[in-house]
Amino acid sequence: MSGAAGIPAVHAGRRSKPVRFTIGSPSGYREMVKVFRSSPGRRPAAVRSTLTAIGVALAMSAVGSALFTVALHDTVGSGLVTFAIFGGLAALSSGVLAWEWAGQRVCPRCGFENSAVAACAACGYDVRERPRFACSEGHRVAYEPGMCDCGRRLLALRPVPVARHAMRAAWFALGFFLLVLVVAALASWPS
User: Fold this and answer.
1) Quick one: how far is CA 10 from the chain centroid?
2) Between the chain's N and C termini, which has fewer beta carbons within 10 Å?
3) Would the pTM of this model clear 0.70, i.e. be above it?
4) Is 9 helix (H, G, I), strand (E, B) or coil?
5) Over the stretch 154-183, which tens digit does the pLDDT of each residue have?
6) Percentages (nearest 5) of helix, strand, coil residues in the chain
7) Where does 22-161 have alpha helices with state H?
């Protein structure tokens, strides 16, 4: 049985070297991809940018709902409901976007929060490109090329074409909207 938490195990009367559960690196140790992101306590810049984005969204929503309440000669209660709905949605979406955008600066290999999206200051990993490797069987994902535990070579993973998927979804939505307009125009056409 292997040692837990770096404690050497004893096999057939002999001690074995502590095992680090990681995948191929030049230092001889192997590094495994972290499943979860680092905690907010280790990411002060991400917390600051998220709180700033939420504050700006709430302030803009407050000004906007006050202006609409005055322009429409509506009641203060209605303006507060408008602010609660739209301010909450704006704060939530801007907070999530700010947290994810700040997450691009965190090194996935060591968890260090860099000041810019470039090479990691702690371990030298290319944070901008984020190269990842896996064997053909998909056992593990690693940050450096090498060999998998199963003996297969780790192959470079291609990045997901997010922009292409977003544009395809936008074109599909536009086409569906135009189809609904044509059907509505044909349905209202005088016979």
Assistant:
1) 41
2) C
3) no
4) coil
5) 888 887 788 899 999 999 999 999 999 999
6) 45, 10, 45
7) 44-71, 76-82, 88-103
